[in-house]
Design goal:
This is Acyl carrier protein. GO terms for molecular function: DNA binding. With about 70 residues, the chain is an all-alpha fold. It is built from four helices and no strands. The protein has one domain.
Length: about 70
């Protein structure tokens, strides 16, 4: 099932990314991303799993940093 624009916006917000930042990660024109949102083009199938993995990666990175700080204190 294709990713809807609403789902795309929710995932971007969850990842704390703007459309422009997302475009910069992949070195694509921001207008390409805006075209997806304006339904002029379908959102590619790989976007949803990428954003899900990106979110999980950031979450685990934050946990790792907290654990590293705790270990350094002791």
């Amino acid at each position: 099932m294709p990713l809807t624009t609403e789902e795309f916006d929710i995932l971007l917000n969850k990842c704390k990314l703007t459309k422009k930042e997302f475009a910069n990660i992949f070195e694509i024109e921001p207008r390409t991303v805006y075209n997806w949102v304006n339904s002029q083009k379908n959102i590619p199938y790989w976007v949803k799993p990428f954003l899900e993995h990106y979110y999980n990666s950031k979450k685990y990175e934050a946990i790792k940093n907290i654990l590293n700080e705790t270990i350094e204190i002791e």
